[in-house]
């Protein structure tokens, strides 16, 4: 429990600090902050991926890798499994968390919905970094229609 609270507080402070330092309230400043958060998440995801057991690195199918992320990696980071994983079997996956831990405190009001994207950039990078370590190049985006539910779309980039 202490680890989850520590991670949540650290994440909140990273977001607040980046928004404070990029004083440009326009799209340019916000985009820069989102890129920095996503980059931090990517490096953390790579590091997590490098610490995975060797048998994990031998996945043969993309779907198996995504299942691993939804179960094992999500539990390691958020102490819960992802709620659903859907695919179109053409390289696009949608991962849904109905009570995303980094959005739960914001779920009390609709006024926070527009603030949600800045709390998702780090996690998008985390997923992309872990996938990268497992040999999968991807594009990860997130969307929130209602708090605290979050959907992460993973598009596999074929090389």
TrEMBL record:
Domain of life: Eukaryota
Compartmental location: Endoplasmic reticulum; Golgi apparatus, cis-Golgi network
GO cellular component: cis-Golgi network; endoplasmic reticulum; trans-Golgi network; TRAPP complex
Pfam families for this protein: TRAPP
Entries under InterPro entries matching the protein: NO_sig/Golgi_transp_ligand-bd, TRAPP_component, TRAPPC6/Trs33
Keyword annotations from UniProtKB, A to Z: Endoplasmic reticulum, ER-Golgi transport, Golgi apparatus, Phosphoprotein, Transport
Keyword hit for Endoplasmic reticulum: yes
A GO biological process held by the record: endoplasmic reticulum to Golgi vesicle-mediated transport
Binding partners and assembly: Part of the multisubunit transport protein particle (TRAPP) complex. Heterodimer with TRAPPC3. The heterodimer TRAPPC3-TRAPPC6A interacts with TRAPPC2L. Interacts with TRAPPC2L.
Annotated family: Belongs to the TRAPP small subunits family. BET3 subfamily.
Function field: May play a role in vesicular transport during the biogenesis of melanosomes.
This protein's name: Trafficking protein particle complex subunit 6A
């Amino acid at each position: 429990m202490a680890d989850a609270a520590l991670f949540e507080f650290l994440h909140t402070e990273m977001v607040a600090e980046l928004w404070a330092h990029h004083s440009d309230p326009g799209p340019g400043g916000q985009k820069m902050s989102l890129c920095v958060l996503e980059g931090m998440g990517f490096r953390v995801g790579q590091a997590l991926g490098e610490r995975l057991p060797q048998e994990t690195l031998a996945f043969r199918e993309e779907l198996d890798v995504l299942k691993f992320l939804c179960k094992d990696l999500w539990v390691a980071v958020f102490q819960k499994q992802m709620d659903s994983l859907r695919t179109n079997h053409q390289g696009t996956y949608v991962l849904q968390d109905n009570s995303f831990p980094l959005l739960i405190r914001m779920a009390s009001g609709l006024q926070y919905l527009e603030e949600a994207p800045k709390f998702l950039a780090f996690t998008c990078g985390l997923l992309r970094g872990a996938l990268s370590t497992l040999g999968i190049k991807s594009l990860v985006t997130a969307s929130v229609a209602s708090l605290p539910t979050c959907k992460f779309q993973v598009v596999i980039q074929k090389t």
